[in-house]
Amino acid sequence: MEPGSGRLPGRLVVFGGTMHELSIMQSVLDQVLEKARQAGASRVHAIRLRIGVLSGVVPDALQFAFEALADGTPAQGAQLLIEDVPARFWCATCRHEFEATRMFAECPDCHRPSMELRAGREMELTSLEVD
Ligand SMILES: [Zn+2]
């Protein structure tokens, strides 16, 4: 291979949090390839994920990890479609849920802190487009 052609092997190391995203992406990709195989598909075109804002996953890092790991698999070149899931907390005093972007959040009505997180840490595969 000539210098300057192909992928840059050093690209991933400049990214903070990459090891975390790499291991997450590897398990997502394993699921994707397994489902594609079960469906008898030879190509994966799109992968949809739901990622909670408090999951600690950086979508850009996930995209880099995906491109590196999917290389040479039926998922190579697939679009990664990421849906952000807002964090939702439950206020036991007001008996309602509210959205927040932080790990510890205050109810907008009574201003008491809530520790009861109901959504926002998920990281799940929702659908695939294959053929
Ligand atoms: Zn409240």
Written description of the protein model:
With 131 residues, this protein is an alpha+beta fold. The protein has a single domain (15-130), classed as hypothetical protein PF0899 fold (2-Layer Sandwich), CATH 3.30.2320.80. The protein has helices at 18-38, 59-70; strands spanning 44-52, 79-85, 87-91, 96-100, 105-106, 113-114, 117-119, 123-130. The strands form three sheets. A three-stranded mixed sheet has the order 2-1-8, covered by helices on one side. Helix 1 packs across helix 2 (59-70). The protein binds zinc ion (ZN). Zinc ion binds at residues 91, 93-94, 107, 109-110, 112.
Average pLDDT rating: 86
Please report which band the strand proportion falls in: under 5%, 5-15%, 15-25%, 25-35%, 35-45% or over 45%. 25-35%
Number of domains: 1
- Low-confidence spans: 10-16
Strand order of the largest sheet: 2-1-8
Task: Indicate the structural class.
Answer: alpha+beta
Query: Ligands bound here?
Result: zinc ion
Per CATH, what is the topology? hypothetical protein PF0899 fold
At CATH level 2, the architecture is: 2-Layer Sandwich
Q: Using the coordinates above, name the CATH class.
A: Alpha Beta
